[in-house]
Design goal:
This protein is of the alpha/beta class. About 40% of the residues lie in helices and about 15% in strands. Helix 6 packs across helix 7 and helix 15 crosses helix 20. About 0% of the residues have low confidence.
Length: about 725
């Protein structure tokens, strides 16, 4: 029987009404996998390949044909906006099948939730944080809601493969299974998967080989790309991104090009940080006002109000008005934005997975190319320039990333440092869910299998004892041996911020009169008269309500951007640095570089030769020495820790490590001694930033050190090889 014929009659009717002449190959394979057996399924296909239909057409068929009552599908998404979008896409079809569908997140209406909770059926679209809230506040309701589940769909699976939210979700899935007494089938959807095996293991740690893998085989659209280079004026810092008029910046010239190039169609521009997004949006708004044309450029980031974000999303999807969204990462995932002509990015990419996800937004029309523009900024070659700036690293990294993009390389996920934070978070949640639980039962639930299995019994016992100390009082043990919440645990779990495992700054609401503009995460409160940029405009703070965390603002023609944003800590993969070195050694001048980028590339290669970096990894800078290892972030950090352990002042960065007040000869000698560096466990005592996640401050230092050592042991084992390479460098 053909895949189409296996679908419910109403589903087939809906397909015909869409004007589809046939199902896509990935949809055929997906339908056969979902309907043909009850194993887990992993579906990997490009953006706009029809992944949603691939999984929901067969799952809704099963839901409509099931004879027993109960909720059929739990769809989990990392973004509220994606849930809202999928709800719109499913509503008509589920209505025909007489199946309810409900959005379940903090901004969703209460009515549909209440109805589906009273009579579980159909589909629930939910965030991990809302699943957590059900466990924490409505355990009995959660059990009744999940009892009849046919499948759990994890959308944008790549977003959960690493990071605290991924560990959190994987633990929640295990808890759902334990709550209802059986394992629920998982179906994962993703557009960018560098390692299908890793993804399958995440979905089913006990039996990854049983996961059915469905991958798109059709070709990608034609790619048209350009890397554009800009030099900062003297005394300007790339990435500082002040508002226009404060000081000349390369961002001003970039805004000119974007304004001239993008007007009249739909585009996406990814700015990296919220600070850059606001600075760029403000420049583009100013150009619209100065030229007397309607503004087509609108910011999009997580701090904006839901209304402002959704207004931009509606404009892009409708396509009736030319619109360019200037975003952080909020438009990177699979929200349906219709046809976007091109994608631009400010700054050299740090991740191939992220770049592929963004690029997938373009080229979605039949026969239309995918268009990518990368804008890089390099320092002015002044007299006090650091030698590393002569290498033009932003341009070279952009070239390296594009080459890897064309080679279809994707990074493999790595183990995550947030395991302790997630363990503490889930430990408290399970205690609330169960009303108290013995330590051995708690360990079985959280650590015996799955994402927290790296926690050994001894680690777990040490953590429990530490959390129960009078100074912390996070948990306590009753006379009958049950783990209960202590006073601090009660305070933590009762806070609204508890549901999320990631750290957030205090959110302050912005009001213009009675109109909410959104929220900004700030740690230092702004005073009356302070100036800020938000929603693409400048504002003056006119009132501060500390108790309610509200800033009342009024429009203002100028102002200096406050520094809200944290710098990106997205690690660089070894392969990117390896490719950068190849770029320096090659002589090709890619046709997709603009004239200024070609100059930057030539300058970088000239500097590479002048510094003799084919033979050595040592570069002098004043009294310091740079060590260029051509390795990624993880290896550079381990080398820096090993040198610190030897008493050497040093700092890791994107290109390697810098030793302070050390000559080249001294540096070479120190590096050759790394072959005898202490063990990973010994080195862990010199790591200063062990508390990197939300609840790490509640963990014993010794546990954090042991887990760091386990994660980095493979890199520590490479220190002798680093030492051997250093021995070959000329003194």
């Amino acid at each position: 029987m053909e895949a189409f014929d296996r679908l419910h009659p109403q589903v087939r009717k809906w397909i015909r009404e869409q004007g589809w002449s046939e199902l896509r190959p990935v949809q055929v394979s997906g339908i056969e996998a979902v309907l043909g057996h009850d194993r887990d399924v992993l579906i990997s296909a490009s953006t706009a390949a029809g992944k949603t239909e691939t999984v929901f057409l067969p799952l809704l068929t099963r839901a409509a044909e099931r004879e027993t009552p109960g909720l059929s599908v739990l769809y989990v998404s990392p973004l509220k906006a994606l849930i809202n979008d999928q709800h719109r896409r499913l509503e008509l079809l589920t209505e025909r099948l007489e199946l309810p569908v409900a959005k379940w997140h903090g901004d969703a209406p209460a009515g549909p939730k209440a109805r589906i909770m009273k009579s579980p059926a159909g589909v629930v679209l939910i965030t991990p944080e809302s699943v957590e809230a059900l466990f924490l506040r409505r355990t009995r309701d959660a059990e009744r809601l999940f009892a009849g589940l046919d499948a759990i769909v994890i959308d944008e699976l790549h977003a959960f493969l690493q990071g605290p939210r991924g560990l959190h979700l994987a633990t929640l899935l295990r808890r759902i299974d334990l709550l209802i007494g059986r394992r629920v089938r998982r179906i994962g959807l993703s557009a960018t998967l560098g390692d299908m095996t890793f993804a399958a293991t995440w979905m089913n740690p006990q039996a990854p080989d049983t996961v059915d893998r469905v991958a798109e085989t059709s070709g990608s659209p034609e790619l048209r790309l350009q890397v554009r280079g800009y030099e900062e004026p003297p005394d300007s810092d790339p990435g500082a991104d002040a508002l226009e008029g404060e000081a000349p910046q390369a961002l001003d010239v970039i805004a000119d090009h974007l304004f001239e190039t993008l007007r009249g169609d739909n585009h996406l521009v990814f700015g990296g940080s919220r600070r850059t997004v606001e600075a760029l949006s403000n420049r583009l708004l100013n150009r619209s006002e100065q030229t007397g044309v309607p503004n087509e450029f609108f910011p999009h980031h997580g701090s904006l109000s839901k209304e402002l974000r959704e207004e931009l999303e509606r404009r892009l999807k409708a396509g009736s008005l030319p619109t360019t969204g200037v975003a952080t990462t909020t438009l990177e995932l699979g929200i349906d934005l219709g046809s976007v002509k091109s994608v631009a990015q400010i700054g050299a990419p740090r991740s191939l997975a992220g770049l592929r996800q963004r690029l997938g937004r373009s080229g979605r029309r039949a026969g239309a190319p995918a268009i990518l523009r990368l804008y890089t900024r390099e320092r002015h070659l002044g007299r006090a320039l650091d030698p590393l700036d002569r290498l033009r690293p932003q341009t070279v990294r952009a070239v390296a990333v594009v080459r890897l993009l064309l080679d279809r390389f994707l990074e493999s996920p790595r183990s995550d440092p947030a395991v302790v934070t997630v363990l503490i978070h889930q430990l408290l949640s399970v205690v609330v869910e169960r009303g108290g639980i013995k330590p051995d039962g708690l360990y079985r639930i959280l650590c015996e299998q799955g994402p927290l299995a790296s926690i050994e019994i001894a680690d777990f016992i040490e953590l429990l004892r530490h959390l129960a100390t009078p100074g912390l009082a996070v948990i306590e043990q009753s006379p009958d041996g049950l783990i209960m919440l202590g006073p601090e645990g009660e305070a933590l779990t009762s806070a609204r911020e508890f549901y999320a495992v990631f750290e957030t700054d205090q959110e302050w609401k912005l009001l213009h009169g009675a109109r909410p503009l959104g929220q900004i995460p700030i740690s230092n409160v702004l005073a009356v008269g302070s100036l800020l940029a938000f929603a693409g405009r400048r504002w003056r703070v006119v009132d501060v309500d500390d108790r309610a965390r509200v800033l009342s603002v009024a429009p203002h023609p100028s102002g200096r951007l406050p520094k809200f944003d944290r710098q990106s800590n997205e690690p660089l993969d070894d392969r990117i640095l390896e490719e950068m070195r190849k770029v320096y050694l090659d002589a090709d001048m890619p046709e997709w570089l603009d004239a200024q980028s070609l100059i930057f590339l030539a300058q970088g290669r000239e500097a590479f030769a002048d510094l003799d970096l084919e033979r050595t990894g040592l570069v002098r800078s004043g009294g310091d020495t740079h060590v260029l290892l051509w390795r990624g972030t993880a290896m550079n950090n381990v080398v820096a820790v090993a040198l610190t352990a030897a008493g050497i002042g040093c700092e890791a960065h994107d290109l390697g490590v810098t030793l302070v007040d050390t000559t080249a000869t001294e540096t070479r000698n120190l590096l050759t001694q790394l072959g005898g560096a202490p063990s990973a466990q010994a080195l862990s005592e010199f790591v200063e930033n062990l508390q990197s996640a939300k609840y790490d401050h509640l963990a014993p230092t010794g546990l954090l050190q042991r887990l760091w050592a386990r994660r980095h042991a493979v890199f520590c084992d490479e220190l002798p090889a680093i030492a051997a390479v250093a021995q070959t460098w000329p003194a």
